[in-house]
């Protein structure tokens, strides 16, 4: 059994070829797709966060709206760039969205990827620590978020408050019990996966991964997952961790699928550089008849190692088609792999 959800980047463009031509289209269609995915039996609706781009940005209004329209499906991010975040304000937003959804929030956070704007986080008022990097900034924000999500008091009560306070230091409100255990770290390296395990975060293995061995992405991800789980055990955490990987997977079951993806060219891993010194490997896409997909996916070692698979969806093709993409995997592919 495996949890299967979708991951949307929320792209929109004012093009006649796009079904998602505005920010309003992107947001409202995301809600509709989450509702449709829940009806199909999918397990999660996840959203990527980018700033200064025609994509999803501040995620919590969207997550709260989906939480109010759905009943069962997990709602999450993959990922929020912590370089841009005020950890305390984020904890309040996350607590509210989690309570609205009835405790279904699964927050993926990370250092983030290369952005549209040069050092865009500086415009949000954030700076790396003295002598540190933007990666240090993101990790410091993440650690602060984890601390305040424990629900412990951090602020001294005012001696003459407007309203009566409970005794002792004040915690951030609204507080949502259990949210601290539903934070995931999006990791592109083995070292950061081990770091995340030590802090008790779940793991989202990044599809854009540092090329640390020259092996295929799925093999490197499987080894990353093994290192993460070993570090988790060494840290002595009481619960079992969760691990997700994301893939572009399209079952060719009708003429639309074949027109869109029948000549899929990204059938091999891609190699590139995310900065002048970091060589990265980007995962292949899968597009084939369902029986072929079953054979191909059975050989993906990272998918086998993970408990959660996120299907990246081409959101600009519209809600109806993306619901079809998700439904095709759930109906025609997942049973053949023992996932359903």
From TrEMBL:
The keyword Oxidoreductase applies. It comes from the Bacteria. Residues 9-257 form the Luciferase-like domain. InterPro entries: Bact_Lucif_Oxidored, Luciferase-like_dom, Luciferase-like_sf. Pfam families: Bac_luciferase. The keyword Oxidoreductase applies. Keywords: Monooxygenase, Oxidoreductase. GO terms for cellular component: cytosol. GO terms for molecular function: monooxygenase activity; oxidoreductase activity, acting on paired donors, with incorporation or reduction of molecular oxygen. Gene3D superfamilies: Luciferase-like domain. This is Alkane 1-monooxygenase. It comes from Streptomyces longwoodensis. The lineage of its organism: Bacteria, Bacillati, Actinomycetota, Actinomycetes, Kitasatosporales.
């Amino acid at each position: 059994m495996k949890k299967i959800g979708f991951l949307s980047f929320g792209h929109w463009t004012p093009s006649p070829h796009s079904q998602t031509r505005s920010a309003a289209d992107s947001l409202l269609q995301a809600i509709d797709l989450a509702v449709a995915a829940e009806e199909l039996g999918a397990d999660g609706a996840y959203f990527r966060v980018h700033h200064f781009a025609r994509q999803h940005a501040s995620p919590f209004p969207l997550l709260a709206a989906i939480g109010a329209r759905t009943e069962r499906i997990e709602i999450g991010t993959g990922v929020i760039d912590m370089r841009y975040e005020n950890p305390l304000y984020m904890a309040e937003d996350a607590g509210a969205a989690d309570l609205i959804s009835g405790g279904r929030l699964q927050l993926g956070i990370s250092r983030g990827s290369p952005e549209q704007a040069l050092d865009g986080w500086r415009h949000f008022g954030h700076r790396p620590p003295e002598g540190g990097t933007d990666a240090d900034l993101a990790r410091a924000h993440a650690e602060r978020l984890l601390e305040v999500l424990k629900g412990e008091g951090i602020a001294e009560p005012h001696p003459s408050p407007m309203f009566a306070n409970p005794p002792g230091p004040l915690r951030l409100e609204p507080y949502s019990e259990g949210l601290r255990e539903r934070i995931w770290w999006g990791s592109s390296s083995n070292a950061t996966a081990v770091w995340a395990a030590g802090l008790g975060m779940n793991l989202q293995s990044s599809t854009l991964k540092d090329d640390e061995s020259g092996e295929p992405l799925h093999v490197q991800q499987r080894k990353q997952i093994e290192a993460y789980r070993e570090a988790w055990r060494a840290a002595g955490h009481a619960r079992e961790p969760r691990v997700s990987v994301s893939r572009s997977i399209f079952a060719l079951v009708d003429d639309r699928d074949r027109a869109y993806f029948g000549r899929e060219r990204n059938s091999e891993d891609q190699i590139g550089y995310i900065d002048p010194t970091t060589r990265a490997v980007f995962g292949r896409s899968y597009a084939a008849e369902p029986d072929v997909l079953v054979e191909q996916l059975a050989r993906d070692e990272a998918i086998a190692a993970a408990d959660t698979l996120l299907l990246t969806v081409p959101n600009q093709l519209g809600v109806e088609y993306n619901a079809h993409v998700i439904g095709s995997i759930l109906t025609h592919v997942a049973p053949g792999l023992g996932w359903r």
